[in-house]
Structures are given as C-alpha cells and as structure tokens.
Amino acid sequence: MSFVPPQSSLRLPESLESQLHAFRLRVRRVKMAEAVLGAFFGVLAAFLLLFAVDRAFDTPDSVRYVLFGACVLAFAVIPVAMHRWIWKQRQLEQLARLLARRYPHFGDELLGIIELAHNDSEQARSRVLVQAAIEQVSRDAGKRDLADAVPNPRHKLWAGLVAAPLVAVVALAIVFPQAASNAWTRLLAPWSDAPRYTFTVVGPLPDLLVVPHGEAFELALQLDESTVSRPEEAAVRWENQPPLAAPLAEDKYRFELPPQLEPGTLHVRVGDARKHVPVEPRMRPELTAIVADYSLPKYLGREKPLHKDVRGGVISLVKGSDVKFTATATRALATATVDGQSQPPEGQKIASPAVHVNGSRVVQFEWQDDAGLAGREPFKLTLTGQD
User: Which of the listed residues 214, 242, 340, 350 has the most CB atoms within 10 Å of its CB?
Assistant: First the structure.
C-alpha cells in the first residue's frame, strides 16, 4: 500500500495579496494624512483666533482654556485614526469588509474566498470549486483600481484648508515674531501669567487712581520706549459716559476728565492696548488747626513758652522772639514742605523749623497724603515782627 501525501492548503494568489496590501497602505496614508492635517488645522485656527482677539482686548482665561482644549481634542483625533484605520484594518478579512463599502458585490466575494482559503475542511470537500472561486475573484480584482475604494478620502481638502492658515501663521511669525511667540505661549499654556503682547505699550498706570472729590482732574498717558505703534489718538471712558479723545503730543496723551463723586473704572484705549484703572474720588487733606509755640526775648523777663492758635493765618510777635508752628491735617500725610524745604510729617502733623522773628515774612505750608492728594492750595501764614 503506497503513501499519498496530503495536498497543501490553497492560498490567495500573491498578486491579490499584494493588491490588498497596497490598498491597506493607501488607506493608512490617506486617513492618517487626514487626521494629522485636521489636527494642525485646529491648532492653527485656534492660534489665529487668539491672535486676532488679543489685538482687540485681553482674551479671558476661560476662552484661552477653551482654545487649548480644542487643540488637545484636535490632536486626539490622531490616535483615534490610528486605532480605526491601522489597528482595525490589519487583517485581510477587515480589508474585504472595507472594500465592500465601495464595491458591495466584489467585497462580499473577496471576503468569501479569504474565508475559504483559511477553511481546510471546505477545501477538502470541494477543492476544485474553492480554487476556481479564488481564481475568479483574483481576476476580477486585477481589473479594478482598489485605490478608488478608500472611504471618503478628504486629504486633499484638508491640505487645502491647512494651507491658508499655515501661510498666515508663518507670515505673522516673520513680520511680528514677538506677537506671534506671545500668542503661542498664551494658547499652549493658558495657566501661565503671560501678559498679552500689544504693539502699543503704555507706561505704568497706578493700581488705584485717587482723584480730588468733585473736581476735574488730568490724566497723562506716556508711551513706553519699547512701543512699536504710536497711534495719533487715544481714548478714555469713565464707566458708561461718552469717551474722550486726546491727540499724541511728545509721546503723551493728556486728558481733562470731568469731576466725579463716586468710585468707578476708567477704561483706556491706545491702539491695541487696553487698560482698566480703578478711580476713587477722595476729599483733599486740609489743615484743621495750626498753632504757634514761641518764646519772647529774654529782656522781657518772660521765660515760660507761650502757645497761640493761628488758624486765621496772621500772627504778630515781638522782634527777637523764636517761634515754631505746628499744623494738623484731616488725615495722615506722606510728605510736607515748609517754605519749600522738606519737613517729614508725623502722622497728621507738620512741624516747621524754629523761626527767629526779626521782621515781617510769610511762612508757607504744603502737604500731600499717601495717595498723592494735596491741599487745595498752600497755607500761607503771615508773621509780623513788632518792636
């Protein structure tokens, strides 16, 4: 009795397998290109939106976080596409099902012969029929361009969509490198304290602007040396009142603002720079008392120091007397001068240096509180020396 070796299992023709592998590679390239281009489009669009908004005003942190989240979601499309178009399309059966979307009849036949090629029992039962089916489908596949079966290819569309924002981003990086770098930082790190870049740079403004209560006041805006843009005009607006404009003169904008009685916010607009300055009207610090402490000449025989209220602003003393004046303000003071000479105040009090009386003169007091408010006008005290 002779031994008959078993026939080897039937396989798909190499030409058909090569064609399917080429189709799989085509699908991967097209779909991954779509994912990458879509991700870059999302990031570039978010950058351009932030750059544009930053030119108008300081983009709120909440909006920056939303744009950052959009960038993360845009790039999250890439691993999703890898799972869908690489991992889930690695087997021939999976490729056949994918082809069935474009060519339903051909895809079903292809799936059938792939299953037959892996089914030894079916081959043993009707080997000739299996081989004939494989050859028939293989010939049919050779007449087709499977590249056309890539589902909904949009890579060219995405390439066109990315081209415009990419050109704009590159142009901004070349023409305005500092502004572009700042926008990238604010987009990709919304939790950072990166300040908004402005082409117009205004000098420092106070955290709180204290102005005289019920009096018109002046505000001067100084352009910084680093400014790129020097607008011909700037504008300020108090709360909901109409805005006021001022022209540029010697790198400054000077505004005359109307009297205010209640605290509010002054909105400043210079080019693309925006500032919001809290303003608080306060009563001016005024003198509530001024007294003279003096000693008479020794020849009068009255050695005890004397004290006199001089709120009226006039005092007459015997020549040869020595006098010191002490003024008291409505609140604590930061600076003070007497006759133009600095006299550091002690809380609310200003003490003058000793004055030797030998004729008539005027003693002048000036003062400011810690907010920079001065008295409405200097206090002038007339001192007359008598024989």
Answer: 350
